[in-house]
Amino acid sequence: MEEGEVSFEEISAECSLWDVGCWMSAFGDWLVNVLLWFPRKVYELFLAGIEEALGAVPVPDIFATWATYSAQLASGTAYFMDAFAIQEGVAIITGVVVAKWFSRVLPWAISG
User: Fold this and answer.
1) pLDDT digits (tens, 9 = 90+) for 3-49
2) Inter-residue contact 23 to 11 (CB < 8 Å)
3) CA 55, CA 46: separation in Å to the nearest integer?
């Protein structure tokens, strides 16, 4: 059973036999889960496709040799990199560059 689903045993233990409101509420929850299954599946497949596409992007050479460059930095430089949030800034800029690349390449790839 997936998260958020309720079994018949749980409903029958919670609702008395003549409590129509409780049974209708349980039926409503079941109906919502059934109707939302398809959009949830589409969203799951969409996210899996994005993950696959981002996984196909090769790592630039500068990031592959980052350990060599960072080992040559002085200790004071590392302190200022932490204070100015350089790591988060590099991650944001890299994300923007990848998003811009996708926005320029994807329309051409889709159209033919």
Assistant:
1) 656 665 555 567 777 777 777 888 888 888 889 889 899 999 998 88
2) yes
3) 14
Q: What is the DSSP string of 61-88?
A: HHHHTHHHHHHTS-HHHHHHHHHTTHHH
Within 13 A of 71's CA, how many CA atoms are on the CB side? 4
107's tokens = 């329309």
Q: Residue type for 65, please?
A: T
**8-state DSSP, 36:** T
pLDDT of 93 strictly over 80: yes
Give the tokens for residue 28: 């409503």
